[in-house]
Specification:
This protein is mostly helical. It has 16 helices and two strands. It has a single domain, classed as Vanadium-containing Chloroperoxidase, domain 2. Helix 2 packs antiparallel against helix 3 and helix 13 packs antiparallel against helix 14.
């Protein structure tokens, strides 16, 4: 796992007087509310029915729009662009970047969740009222609309609208996923949704050990995975500790909650506020986080419907016919947490959580303490609060919650963590970089000219 701090402030910040730095810190905390307020409102709107990959997808559009609206005017970091969506150039000279961000956020959310138009309008008007009327404000509003509409247009045919209705029929044979409830397969077409940054999902997809279901089923690794979840994930397990039970419920992120991707956004909002990040760095953090989780989700979903592996409750009910002598059948076994309605491998929760943890640790360092509340039953109230000392600790706990809940095998968890980390590291290496200082750019130019001259003299 790659956990290394990469948060960089513009070099000229270091020359500010201590008193000015304190003042800037106080102002930054207030201004960052522009970002967190829209993120929090978006999560509220997504609780009703949106699934984790969809939450990440929509939040990525929101965060990238706000980030681009800001950075196309401020120019501290490179603007985001990929594929059919070119990175926007410089915005109108003198335009108010805060007005642009507010306008971009409102435009995105009004389009994606038109049924909640009044809530978005109220936040939009409230935030804009804090900016004095001026040409800069007017220009910022117009530019934000342009930024948002361009990204929405580029994503309009990305496949997300059809992912839930893509035809899919379970194979139904040994080792393959079988429906465990009356619900249909969840988002069977999501693996074909256009990515935000990674060059397709193929290089990030993973496969069951041995490359085939039969090979994995007959292995000692499968027997270990099987017996572990059978023991720890049973509804009435006597081996699972009370804390492990709490972890399973805490990270279940079922219907009526903000889902796994939403929980990591809540973590990001909390630690960004504690760190006193500026509006620019808060927007950059959430854009990176949600783009990484969106692409990690897409690669995981592509793997899930490619591998089509069965859930533990189906596996344990058929332990006598899987070809492995070390897997004893239990026809009455049931998981602690109801199985989600999609194949088991690879763990979506482990993938999302690892991608999120890698991004957050890269910006802020891994050893950050924070608390997080979880709505277990989807009634809108916090039922459990857990404390963490690092992002990696939270990610590991979220991943293992699937085993403790009886819905995931250990191999699925481990491979999901690797997938999530790989996607996050690609996003970090290729997007949202600091714009070089002019002096640095000149040095690079002279270095290149010197190199060419040296080659010619040979």
């Amino acid at each position: 796992m790659f956990y290394q701090s990469m948060l960089r402030l513009p070099p000229h910040f270091s020359s500010l007087l201590a008193g000015s730095a304190l003042l800037l810190s106080a102002v930054a905390e207030v201004r960052a509310d522009i970002v967190s307020d829209w993120n929090a409102l978006a999560l509220t709107q997504m609780m009703a029915s949106t699934e984790s990959p969809m939450v990440a997808h929509d939040l990525a559009i929101l965060a990238a729009s706000m980030y681009n609206a800001d950075q196309s005017i401020e120019g501290t970091y490179n603007t985001y662009g990929y594929g059919a969506y070119p990175a926007p150039g410089a915005g109108p000279a003198g335009a108010d970047s805060q007005a642009a961000m507010i306008s971009a956020a409102n435009t995105v959310m009004q389009y994606l969740y038109s049924g909640s138009s009044g809530d978005f309008t109220a936040l939009y008007n409230s935030q804009l009222s804090g900016i004095a009327n001026s040409q800069a404000k007017t220009d910022g509003i117009g530019w934000g609309i342009t930024i948002a509409n361009n990204l929405l247009s580029a994503r309009s045919g990305d496949g997300s609208a059809d992912a839930a209705t893509t035809p899919y029929s379970p194979v139904g044979t040994i080792g393959y996923w079988q429906q465990t409830s009356s619900a249909g397969a969840l988002l069977p077409g999501w693996g074909s949704v256009a990515t935000f940054t990674i060059p397709g999902t193929g290089a990030y997809m993973t496969a069951l050990p041995g490359g085939a279901i039969t090979t994995y089923l007959q292995s000692s690794q499968y027997a270990a995975d099987y017996n572990q979840v059978k023991d720890l994930g049973a509804a009435f397990s006597v081996s699972r500790t009370s804390d492990q039970t709490n972890q399973a419920y805490f990270w279940a992120a079922g219907d009526g909650t903000v889902k796994m991707t939403g929980m990591w956004n809540q973590i990001a909002q909390s630690v960004a506020a504690t760190a006193g990040l500026s509006v620019a760095d808060s927007a950059r953090l959430l854009a990176t986080l949600n783009v990484a989780m969106a692409d990690a989700s897409t690669a995981a979903m592509a793997t899930i419907y490619d591998q089509q592996f069965w859930r533990p409750e189906t596996a344990i009910a058929n332990g006598d016919i899987d070809g492995n002598a070390s897997t004893d059948v239990d026809s009455f076994w049931a998981p602690l947490i109801s199985s989600p309605s999609l194949p088991e491998y690879v763990s979506l929760g482990a993938t999302i959580s690892e991608a999120a943890a890698v991004v957050l640790a890269s910006y802020l360092g891994d050893s950050v303490s924070f608390s997080l509340g979880s709505d277990i039953n989807g009634d809108g109230s916090i039922d459990l609060t857990r404390n963490f000392t690092s992002f990696s600790q939270a990610a590991t706990e979220a991943a293992m919650a699937g085993v403790y809940g009886g819905t995931q095998f250990q191999t699925s968890v481990t491979d999901g963590q690797a997938l999530g980390a790989n996607v996050a590291n690609y996003v970090l290496a290729n997007n949202f970089a600091l714009v070089p200082e002019p002096a640095g750019a000149v040095l690079m130019l002279f270095g290149g000219l010197f190199f060419l001259g040296a080659r010619r003299r040979r």
